[in-house]
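Narrative summary of target 7.
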Amino acid sequence: MQRASLLKRFIAFVIDLLILNSILLWPFNLVILKKFPNVETLLSNPAQLAQISSQLAITAFLSGIVILLYFTFFEFKFQQTIGKYFVKIKISEQKSFSTILATNLSFIPAFPFVFLWLVDVVYLIFNPNNQRLTEKFFNVDNVEINSSSWSAHYGIKE
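Modeled conformation, tokenized:
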């Protein structure tokens, strides 16, 4: 099987982020907007900003956990996320839950995982195999699904 192209991986990631933002993270966005309807007022009052910074940090951390669970669940259960499904790419072979979880730890916005995000993206861009560093470390490959194997993968008779 052919490794997934960087363009397809990027498009799949954008689709996944749109899904996450519109469906899963919407409640977090509503809470933030309800608590802080006027950003200008908030920014002009440093005392209030300091007071709510811990609430924002908790919200960011919980959002990261939701994102981590989304990618880990779909990649473990189906070998692909919804975005990967639409661009016809998947993980080449079934991996353990802990392996999939480990490759997605960069979605947690906390030290030291936040550094993984930058390193993973830079490594992905410059790696000829289009793998993130964590995928390389855990031997996870994303491959393109051709039409016949895509149909067989989903039990569709041609």
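Strands lie at 89-91, 142-144.
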